Amino acid sequence: MVFSKLFRRAAAPAPRIADGRIVYAIGDIHGRLDCLEDLLARIGADPERGDRRVTLVFLGDLIDRGPDSRGVVERVMALCAASEDVHCLCGNHEELLLEAAAGSRQALGIFNRAGGRETVLSYGVDDATYEREDLKGVQRLILDHVPAAHLDFLRTLPDRIVIDDYVLVHAGIRPGVALDDQKSSDLRWIRAPFLDHHGRHERFVVHGHTVTEEPDVRSNRIGIDTGAYRTGRLTALVLAGDSHRFLTTACPEGSGASVD
Questions:
Q1: Hey, how many other C-beta atoms are within 10 angstroms of the C-beta on 225?
Q2: Residue 10: which pLDDT band, with cuts at 50, 70 and 90?
Q3: How far apart are CA 159 and CA 136, in angstroms?
Q4: Beta pairing class for 86-88 and 53-58
């Protein structure tokens, strides 16, 4: 019994955020500006902020599915411009929009099924016009109606951010691969190899991308995509010291494409 205790692997220490700092990681918004404004108000009123340095991290997928992708992009752009402590990551939906704008037929096809229509409509295109267009026409609508400044902003978005013991990404990481060697395609799109992995990673992972009814808390990761475009529940993970908690909206339910 004594020997078995000696050789038992020690439990991993809880990941920590440095003293004097509080981090709010915000899950997939998908065009729900109403949910975003609600959540930002909750963050602003959070009594735990105190005089800590506040960091906001948007985990990507600002756009598609919901009714106001343009409004979300503009709000996040303004927040990022106003503070070096506001960060936004690139999600797979931002990637699809950028590749569709560049004329990729594969991306345009997926874009149509994944809620891209709602994004284009939010930029002032009417439904009848959108429905008349073929894939090449959709590309033209994107280039004609999405401001170049918005596309340029999305092109600058990083795939990950490291804060103390945490790495924040959109989708996840490939197990067994060093963070510096991770591929953008995995950081934006990965599912099963990451979600099914139960061992330690180089850092504790915070991610969105995969919808769960409630935040998905595991020993090596926390997922916070609670399907805001459909459920009205947009979630922020709050990290301070060695603790975590959640802030979640209760906006009206919505609808939208279900392709991830």
A1: 28
A2: low
A3: 28
A4: parallel
